[in-house]
Amino acid sequence: MHFSQFYNSPLNLNPALAGMFPEDVRFIGNYRNQWESVPVPYLSFSGSYDTKIYNSIAPNGFFALGGIFNYDKQGDGALALTQLSLTASYTHQVGDLSFLTAGFQIGSMNRGFDLDGLTFENQYNGDVFDPGLDTRENFENTSKTFLDLGTGLNLHVENDAGFSINIGGGLYHLTRPQQNFYNQTASELPFRITGHVIGITRLNDKMDLRFRLLSQFQGPYHEYLAGSALVYKLSDAKGSELSVNLGTNYRYADESDAVIPTLGVRYLMWYAEFSYDINVSQFTEATNGAGGPELSVIYTITKVKPPQSFKACPIF
């Protein structure tokens, strides 16, 4: 499972990105529908939550906790992956405006498929396909559940001129869990390694430039994605903040190179971004250039902080 808007799905990118946002609480939903026209569509959904936890035992940093739910389904056999994981991180201030974060993720994953959508050679009687014929296939399991672990590091640096950047990486499937459906056949889930650069810089009072880079590897597969977006602030008045951004990403990957235009809108604590993959690889012979739509929705909450000190009213 992957998202072209990887920067809008941080807990799938790096456990150390938990809590790395300006506000205090964050909810994210991601939806992707890829290659509907092939037709072997890939449907992906992710929902996550993370929150900062300030504690007096860590005056130079903060903890963060989060959770993530992933669901991915593909192909005629509805090969599905369902994941439910918890994430924890600690961020330590290493400079005036720089922070180093270590994160860890633990959860349960289930991989399964549906026989009803599959056909087998034994169901052809020599002339036509007969779904009533016995498949003569004996699957020991059509579902497998296993433990999954991940970890990551992230360095956040910012300055007073409106520049900030996150540089880091994650390592998933630390235990190389077995995901085989036949007990006699081993099938390890390979490590997934991610590296990312995500940043923003202020151009002027009305415009910002966002930039993002991703490299991702798993077994023999790889993915590289780069992009940027211009953000225009329509209103920055307190209580009516509104901005729009327009950008483009480009993905280079195995058989799925794509140009990805993006459009995002932020209003108060809500942010939504829509993108569409336009396939430009040799796979266009099957897709006619159509990749798939993707939508991300983010909602954040800022908590009111207690004052550092209290002063007595002189009237009393």
Any idea how many domains?
A: 1
The CATH homologous superfamily name equals Outer membrane protein transport protein (OMPP1/FadL/TodX)
Helical amount among residues, as a percent range? under 10%
Structural class: mainly beta
Uncertain segments of ≥5 residues (pLDDT<50)? none
CATH topology (fold) name: Porin
Order of helices and strands: HEEEEEEEEEEEEEHE
Q: Let me know the largest β-sheet.
A: 14 strands, antiparallel, barrel
CATH architecture: Beta Barrel
Q: What percent of residues are in strands?
A: over 45%
Q: Based on DSSP secondary structure assignment, what is the total number of beta strands?
A: 14
For the record, give the distance between the C-alpha atoms at the N and C termini, rounded to a whole number. Answer: 63 Å
The whole-number mean of residue pLDDT values reads: 89
The CATH class label is Mainly Beta
Number of helices: 2
**Widest sheet, order of strands:** 1-2-3-4-5-6-7-8-9-10-11-12-13-14
Radius of gyration: 23 Å
- Shape type: globular
Question: Could you describe the 3D structure shown?
Answer:
This protein is mainly β and 316 residues long. The protein has a single domain, classed as Outer membrane protein transport protein (OMPP1/FadL/TodX) (Porin), CATH 2.40.160. 3% of the residues lie in helices and 55% in strands. The chain has two helices and 14 strands, in the order αβββββββββββββαβ. Strands 1-2-3-4-5-6-7-8-9-10-11-12-13-14 form a 14-stranded antiparallel beta barrel. The longest helix has 4 residues. It is globular and about 95 Å long. The model has no long low-confidence stretch (mean pLDDT 89).
